[in-house]
Write a structure and sequence with these properties.
single chain; 14% strand
């Protein structure tokens, strides 16, 4: 699909990865008085982004190419013209599979933009497809339904109205957003009619929050599954089930992705030797660090630094977007 207008494209890894905290929460810099944003992303070479979740709600429309998406422990394959609907609970990530560079349009918004009372009141019905995302939730809306194309038209209208600097513009944005939410509520009504709002996953997330806080401060130190379970004062088997339930990953896989994300930031922003850098992010063995890095990022640490160091990153992104 060709897009008219002067759109600002970003490589996905450059705007998502740097804002993911140790607990895997991605923080978007919303205008606090009007928390909604539209982005246009291209999946270039700087991928994949590690598993993350967010407090906002997300709707992603695949503009071109094909995108793979992991939501908790489930994998989805999304084609051009399809929609991905993600609430605030599940850990997830998207990436490209092929050599082509797919593009997506994303709508991020906080629920209070629609309903200040959270899940109370009639307005909350608009948000049920985001609140009621249990393990079997159908996150992908297929193109054949016609809904993704209608949603994308409304996303474009929201984008045109932002930043909403007066009351009329804000009313327009809220109206377009409600139109999107009505489309989704109608689409998901057969599924939602069989579900009740629960907080088991939220409780599990609160249960392991001290571990995420520990990792943010001590990720350079050795920490295994037994240490993590002891920190939370639960048994190792219970911890392993709880962590997988919340993040969709094993603890070791999550920790490695987190450390690699820290290493990527250091590779781009510093000239520290790789041998020193891998020690700082918690890898005692440089060979093992290189192996995990290549498996996660698809290139070596040295090649990553050459491509995305501060002197080359802007040029590379520009070329990527000019030659998709």
């Amino acid at each position: 699909m060709r897009l008219s207008g002067n759109l600002k494209w970003h490589e996905s890894g450059t705007i998502i990865a740097p804002q993911i905290r140790a607990d895997g929460v991605h923080v978007w810099p919303f205008d606090p008085s009007f928390p909604i944003a539209v982005t246009f992303q291209v999946f270039g070479d700087r991928q994949p982004v590690r598993m993350n979740r967010h407090d906002y709600f997300e709707i992603a429309y695949v503009l071109s190419g094909e995108v793979s998406c992991q939501i908790s422990d489930r994998l989805f394959h999304c084609k051009e013209g399809e929609l991905i609907v993600v609430g605030s609970s599940p850990y997830h990530r998207m990436w490209r599979d092929a050599r082509t560079q797919p593009r997506i349009a994303t709508l991020f918004f906080m629920p209070e933009l629609i309903c200040e009372a959270g899940t109370n009141g009639e307005q909350a019905e608009f948000l049920l497809p985001f609140y009621l995302q249990e393990a079997s939730f159908p996150h992908i809306v297929r193109a054949r339904t016609g809904i993704p194309a209608e949603v994308f038209k409304l996303i474009r209208r929201i984008h045109a109205a932002l930043p909403a600097q007066n009351s009329l513009a804000r009313l327009s944005v809220r109206t377009f957003l409600k139109m999107i939410l009505i489309l989704l509520a109608n689409h998901y009504s057969p599924y939602l009619g069989k579900r009740q709002l629960g907080d088991r996953k939220q409780e599990a997330m609160r249960r392991i929050a001290p571990l995420f806080e520990f990792l943010e401060r001590h990720y350079s130190q050795a920490i295994g599954v037994e240490d993590a379970a002891a920190l939370l004062q639960i048994s190792k088997p219970h911890f392993m089930r709880l962590f997988k339930h919340v993040t969709g990953q094993s603890f070791i896989s999550y920790l490695n992705h987190f450390r690699i994300a820290k290493a990527q930031a250091l590779l781009v922003t510093s000239d520290k030797p790789i041998a020193q850098l891998c020690q700082e992010v918690g890898f005692c063995d440089q060979s093992y660090f290189g192996s995990v890095f290549r498996k996660t990022v698809q290139i070596t640490p040295l090649e990553f630094r050459r491509r995305f160091g501060s002197s080359t990153a802007d040029t590379h992104i520009h070329r990527t977007l000019q030659n998709p």
